[in-house]
Amino acid sequence: MKTLLAQSSALTLAIAALAPLPLMAQTASTDTTGENMFEAENDPYIWLEEARDEKALAWVEDENNRTLAALATDPRFDELQAEALAILDAQDRVPYGSFYPDGIYNFWQDETNPKGLIRRTTMDSYRTDNPVWETVLDIDALAKAEGREWAYSGRTCLEPERTLCLLSLSDGGKDATVMREFDGKTGKFVEDGFDLPESIGSASWVDRDTLLVTRDFGEGTMSESGYPLTTRLLKRGQSLSDAPEVFRGEPTDLGAGSYVLRDSDGVEHARIAYRSIDFWNSANFVEHDGKWVQLDIPSKAGLAGIVGDRLLFSTDVDWTVGGITFPADSIVSVDLEDWKRDPNGVDYELVWAPGDRQTAQGVAVTSDALYVSVLDNVRGRVIRYERDGGKWRTKPLALPDNSTIGVISTADTSDELMINVTGFLEPSQLFYYDGSSDTLEVLKTSPARFDAAGASVVQQEATSRDGTKIPYFVVLPKGGLDKGPLPVRMTGYGGFQNANTPGYLGLTGKLWLERGGAYVLTNLRGGGEFGPSWHQNAIRENKQRTWDDFIAVAEDLQARGITTPGQLGITGGSQGGLLVGTAITQRPELFNAAVVWVPLFDMLRYPYIGRGASWIGEYGDPRIAEQRAWIEPYSPYQALLNGKDFPSPLFITSTADDRTHPSHGRKAAARLAEIGQPYYYFEDTVGGHSGGVDNAQRAKLQAIEFTYMMQRLMDKAEN
């Protein structure tokens, strides 16, 4: 599947973050009255920023025991955990696959294989109800043999055969990985093959014996954000220290790197480099006549792939070139050979532009066509674009309406793809499409995981503080509001241009809806539900708009009689954890439960913790007085003050989270203990930022959350 994200995002680095920067010495002072009480020199909980410090881990163990004593002893806990694990381990769930020249590949985890199997089958077998799978690599066996908590983190393969691959393995779920050369034909790691030590970073194949490697090469090669700044050209058998540097970013960059640009046949057309200036802005370069030439494109635009003889770009801002203005969120193309001759002297043409309340969620290419995944008022569509006679011909695929739709995989040498279609109450369906014959069919369907009879979905709008209409979905259980207001589990994200879209509520349906609870999904500014402007309208100095939107939905739910303050619980992770934190510190009276997953929380120290410095483009830099002025008023950690009653939040973190870092949740819990406010804290020792490396861990975490929600909202509801 040949897709490229816009290089303006740090996500294109395909790396995570490094450990926190060195901490200042802990002070014995516990004075919390000064205006700078939460700076490093005055914060009494600074020691909790050391992820694996013995004292910190002893504190974690005590907190975990206290939380499990309150939640795991609930008669419902074991039942919830068993139900969650049964769904996660179900043998009849859809085995999502990827097209490879030697078959369909799938990564599979279940009770027998908790760490997972990389396996493959033929397309003919995959089409059956019971495919015959061949194990390519057993991650459990590998972890046992090497005594490591390996978690599989993906692979990058040599085109076009795609049998020689660099496998990424994470120890305990960290974002940092090792990369090892693996031969898919033999099912073994290549003896004396490429073996890159643990780091955040990426690698791109040049040929069988050469890699472009973007990783930690020692002093001066990593940014403040913890991303690599340099790329080296590594030959087989050569040490990393001897590999020559081919590209370097600036010390102030978020990160920088280089990769090979190929078409669907695996043919190399250019070598690309990028400097991520911040999370949203980048400088892009192409190697031309032996030099790196910067592309004359907006800093919020980037390469999006190759289709036939056309090179594609996407842009998050209006782009005027050659007297033509392409609106933000457009996809444009140029003649590939013209671009290779003169990268900054080509004619651009429009491929796709958004309509009202539309945004492009992604692009994918096959050997013959471009497929654009579109959100239309938070509902999915896929449109096929084929170049014919110098023009783009379009064809919307006849997929179900009112669904979330995403391209799962595309073939390199044919016009085949697989598409997932899902909704809140509709189990996922995997569609197969062959563009050469215009054949669309349901390939696989997930069985229902809960009884959706009588359940319903409505889309509502709340009015935010500044008058903006904020859409949200409400999923009502059987009986709806017949008996009055309901216990509600409400979630949101509202950041980094990520879109919250309807998806099958397998776990939530079984663990919550069947027990009479309702579910709410919010579409807040700062997210990507309505394109770049929806995101850019609520970042940096305007980030409070995201928090206002979430609060407005909570108020609207109560005004409509859907729930009450005593029955409303909120949950969110990462940026969503920050969202929950701002909600309970700004309007605690609206909520009776709050689950804060792997959060950002101390926004005055976040640049020093985990990969925090990489997100300055989203939030601003609290080390700069002007920007601190807009961050400090909403930073949840600093808002945990005496005189307020908070809704007994539950913090869930991971010791192995090298992205946001567990100290955000740790310090918040410690502060609540200091001021005598009830809370729960649970820290998983492995699992990383995504929460759990195997299904048993994931099921346990789900049971912790839902038991807590039931105790707070179903047992103690104030009707």
UniProtKB/TrEMBL annotation:
Pfam families documented for this protein: Peptidase_S9, Peptidase_S9_N
Residue stretches making up the Peptidase S9 prolyl oligopeptidase catalytic domain: 512-711
One Gene Ontology term, aspect cellular component: cytosol
Annotated Gene3D superfamilies: alpha/beta hydrolase, Prolyl oligopeptidase, N-terminal domain
Superkingdom classification of source: Bacteria
GO biological process, alphabetically ordered: proteolysis
SUPFAM superfamilies: alpha/beta-Hydrolases, Peptidase/esterase 'gauge' domain
Organism: Qipengyuania oceanensis
InterPro entries: AB_hydrolase_fold (IPR029058), Pept_S9A_N (IPR023302), Peptidase_S9_cat (IPR001375), Peptidase_S9A (IPR002470), Prolyl_oligopep/macrocyclase (IPR051167)
Region forming the signal peptide: 1-25
Residue ranges constituting the Peptidase S9A N-terminal domain according to the UniProt record: 40-445
Keywords in alphabetical order: Hydrolase, Protease, Serine protease, Signal
Protein name per UniProt: Prolyl oligopeptidase family serine peptidase
A molecular function GO annotation: oligopeptidase activity
